[in-house]
């Protein structure tokens, strides 16, 4: 990724007594959140998440933060603090721990339980866990941490106050200010106020919804809408939501009991996460309501509810397979109801609407965010952010967690409440807090790291470009044999193409020009096969572009015989 701040160079040495903030992901995108704090030569990591690829990154499974800037200093990392259990905050943790297994992990009970199941998949067993809850205070090296309850779209989320000799940082994590949450656990504004009284030198705040005016709607408002959808359904109901949205699943379970339906989970992450949430007491499962997915099919359709993953249109998810009629045991019937009780993450629009269209083509009634209040955001809107700034009264603000537009809107809100120093940074841009003032001091190299199957970081942006060209334009191979004695083309060109409606006769007219071009190069004394291949590439490339308006990948092969 090209860096948005060409004017910046490597940061100078951190002044004694200063705190350095190095965002390695999540500033400039919604996903792969990771921020490094440095004080007195020691490092603290807050969050270590993944970003999911979009249509322009074919074949990529996940995108990680770039650990490059701290790779040589992993011994200096005191701990990784995980603010909550969403993938964009915990998903890359196993990849960082693969580089140093014994970095302590700090987080709430649910967060650590969710990350633990990932560590087991990666066979990581030597990581110390420090379970914390709101109000707890614990030190790692020079970092004195205090945790504050925040309300979000997953239970047990925490903000963290980080005290060092440079002052106090307050990082909200992801949060909103639902005043009547289903679990009664509100964002602790009293703690925010207390920390504000003590003096917050740098406030890192969730920017996701900074452009949205007013207040985020309460989760409770969804309950009657779900109830209504249940009441109107005379057949099977399928609800798709995030596999971590415990409260949404709770609402569905409660509605199912009320309407005399049984529930089954489909999707591996849904089954796993809800078992964890139930075992730890975050999800209350009414007796007798759950059945195995395969048993559910034996019940009458009007008694069935499936809770499934795939609300973002992920192509391999249960919901996508149901929409394509390729699920092994869930077969959609005309008149079934599908409820997408989830947000639409930017970039997923095409995939989600593809699934919705597929479901509707099969005769399903689809209830989604666009036609009913079946989802509310997990993030604070502008009104809530204003409250926070007024309560905390921070000296410096660094908007985090968002695209550029979100972070700029968030900074404007801070300024409107009288915050004098708002610092904007993107991934890799280094911010120092020295003598109570935060400022941008430089940048570190920080790119995308792609996970593709078993490989991490081997796939590069240029290979993705090749994949896009192959996917959109196809390829043409050209084989030419050169006689090294006569210095002339002796056979070929043999031309093959894939990916477009080419037929071999399409290439007849370009064969002689290729022979002529190669012979001319040979006459001029070129013997290097790479250069001859470039001649072939140029000749056929120009012709394909002019006559067919295409730019396929061209693979020229020149063989000496
Ligand atoms: Zn979150
Ligand atoms: Zn997040």
TrEMBL record:
Q: Where do the coiled-coil regions begin and end?
A: none
- Which GO MF term does the entry hold, naming one? hydrolase activity
Q: What is its EC number?
A: 3.1.-.-
Query: Which InterPro entries does UniProt cross-reference here?
Result: Metallo-B-lactamas, RibonucZ/Hydroxyglut_hydro, RMMBL, RNase_J, RNase_J_2, RNase_J_b_CASP, RNase_J_bac, RNase_J_C
Positions of substrate binding:
375-379
- Entries under CDD domains matching the protein: RNaseJ_MBL-fold
Localization, per the record, is: Cytoplasm
Q: What does this protein do, in the record's words? A: An RNase that has 5'-3' exonuclease and possibly endonuclease activity. Involved in maturation of rRNA and in some organisms also mRNA maturation and/or decay.
Q: Which family does it belong to?
A: Belongs to the metallo-beta-lactamase superfamily. RNA-metabolizing metallo-beta-lactamase-like family. Bacterial RNase J subfamily.
Protein name (database record)? Ribonuclease J
Question: From which organism does this entry originate?
Answer: Nocardioides ginsengisoli
**Could you read off the lineage of the organism from its UniProt record?**
Bacteria, Bacillati, Actinomycetota, Actinomycetes, Propionibacteriales
């Amino acid at each position: 990724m090209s860096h948005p701040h060409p004017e910046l160079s490597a940061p100078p040495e951190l002044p004694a007594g200063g705190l350095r903030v190095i965002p390695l992901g999540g500033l400039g995108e919604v996903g792969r959140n990771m921020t490094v704090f440095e004080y007195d030569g020691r490092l603290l990591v807050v969050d270590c998440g993944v970003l999911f690829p979009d249509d322009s990154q074919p074949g990529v499974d996940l995108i990680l933060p770039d650990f490059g800037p701290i790779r040589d200093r992993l011994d200096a990392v005191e701990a990784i603090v995980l603010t909550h259990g969403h993938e964009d905050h915990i998903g890359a943790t196993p990849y960082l721990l693969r580089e140093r297994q014994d970095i302590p992990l700090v987080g709430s009970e649910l967060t650590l339980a969710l990350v633990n199941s990932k560590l087991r998949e990666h066979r990581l067993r030597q990581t110390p866990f420090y379970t914390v809850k709101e109000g707890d205070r614990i030190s790692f090296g020079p970092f004195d941490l205090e945790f504050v309850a925040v309300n979000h779209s997953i239970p047990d989320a925490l903000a963290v106050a980080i005290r060092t000799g440079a002052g106090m940082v307050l990082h909200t994590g992801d949060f909103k200010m639902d005043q009547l949450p289903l679990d009664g656990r509100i964002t602790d504004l009293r703690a925010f106020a207390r920390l504000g009284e003590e003096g917050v030198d740098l406030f890192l705040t969730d920017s996701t919804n900074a452009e949205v005016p007013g207040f985020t709607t309460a989760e409770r408002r969804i309950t009657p809408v779900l109830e209504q959808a249940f009441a109107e359904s005379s057949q099977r109901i399928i609800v798709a939501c995030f596999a971590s949205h415990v409260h949404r699943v709770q609402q569905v379970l409660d509605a199912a009991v009320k309407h005399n339906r049984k529930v089954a989970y489909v999707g591996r992450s849904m089954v796993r996460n809800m078992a964890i949430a139930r075992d730890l007491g975050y999800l209350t499962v009414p007796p007798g309501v759950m059945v195995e997915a395969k048993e559910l099919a034996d019940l009458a359709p009007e008694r069935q509810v499936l809770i499934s993953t795939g609300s973002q249109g992920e192509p391999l998810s249960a919901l996508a397979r149901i929409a394509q009629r390729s699920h092994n045991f869930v077969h959609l019937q005309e008149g079934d109801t599908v409820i997408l009780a989830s947000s639409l993450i930017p970039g997923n629009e095409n995939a989600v609407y593809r699934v919705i269209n597929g479901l509707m083509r099969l005769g399903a009634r689809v209830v989604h965010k666009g036609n009913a209040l079946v989802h509310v955001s997990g993030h604070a809107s502008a009104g809530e952010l204003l409250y926070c700034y007024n309560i905390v009264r921070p000296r410096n603000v660094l908007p985090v967690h968002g695209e550029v537009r979100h972070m700029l809107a968030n900074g404007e809100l801070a300024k409107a409440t009288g915050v004098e120093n708002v610092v904007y940074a993107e991934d890799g841009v280094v911010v120092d807090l020295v003598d109570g003032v935060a400022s941008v001091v430089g940048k570190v190299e920080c790119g995308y790291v792609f996970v593709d199957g078993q490989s991490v970081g081997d796939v590069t942006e240029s290979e993705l470009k090749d994949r896009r060209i192959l996917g959109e334009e196809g390829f043409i191979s050209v084989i030419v044999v050169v006689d090294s004695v006569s210095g002339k083309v002796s056979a070929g060109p043999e031309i093959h193409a894939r990916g477009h409606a080419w037929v071999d006769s399409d290439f007849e007219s370009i064969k002689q020009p290729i022979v002529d071009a190669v012979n001319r190069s040979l006459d001029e004394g070129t013997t290097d096969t790479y250069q001859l291949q470039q001649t072939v590439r140029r000749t056929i490339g120009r012709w394909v572009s002019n006559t067919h308006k295409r730019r396929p990948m061209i693979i020229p092969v020149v063989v000496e015989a």
